[in-house]
Write a structure and sequence with these properties.
The protein is an alpha+beta fold and 113 residues long. It has 2 domains: 46 residues, no CATH class; 67 residues, Alpha-Beta Plaits. 30% of the residues lie in helices and 35% in strands. It has 3 helices and 6 strands, in the order ββαβββαβα. The protein has a 4-stranded antiparallel sheet with strand order 4-5-3-6. Strands 1-2 form a two-stranded antiparallel ribbon. A hairpin with a 4-residue loop joins strand 4 and strand 5. The longest helix has 16 residues. It is elongated and about 50 Å long.
Length: 113
């Protein structure tokens, strides 16, 4: 696999960068928490994190910038504990190079429109 990646849109080179640098700069991470008990609605105390409630109230998903110095995860977990929300499992996932590529193309289309 190549060390550097170039993205071409409609014949124009819109980006050339080292693969790891690109993943670090544009990649996003996702933390998915499997809740011990389902939630009917998102508590107001958790509004600062822009969480997504899914799976019939059984999961909370938090998306964050992987390269940020502060991800907000420790304070999120503390706030959840403070409002009495427990979780039984968690998983993290990082965006793939393909997802970054698709995001770049969509962004360029939006700017062109």
């Amino acid at each position: 696999m190549a060390d550097r990646v170039g993205v071409i849109r409609q014949g124009e080179l819109i980006l050339v960068d080292d693969k790891q640098a690109l993943m670090s700069k544009l990649g996003r991470k996702e933390l998915k928490l499997q809740l011990a008990e389902p939630l009917e609605a998102m508590p107001a105390e958790l509004a600062d994190w822009s969480l997504e409630l899914g799976a019939e109230g059984r999961t909370l998903t938090y998306r964050f910038n992987a390269s940020s110095e502060r991800t907000g995860i420790p304070s999120l977990l503390t706030a959840m504990r403070d409002v009495g929300i427990a979780f039984k499992d968690l998983e993290t996932r990082q965006s793939s190079l393909e997802e970054i590529f698709v995001g770049l193309i969509r962004e360029q289309r939006s700017e062109a429109a």
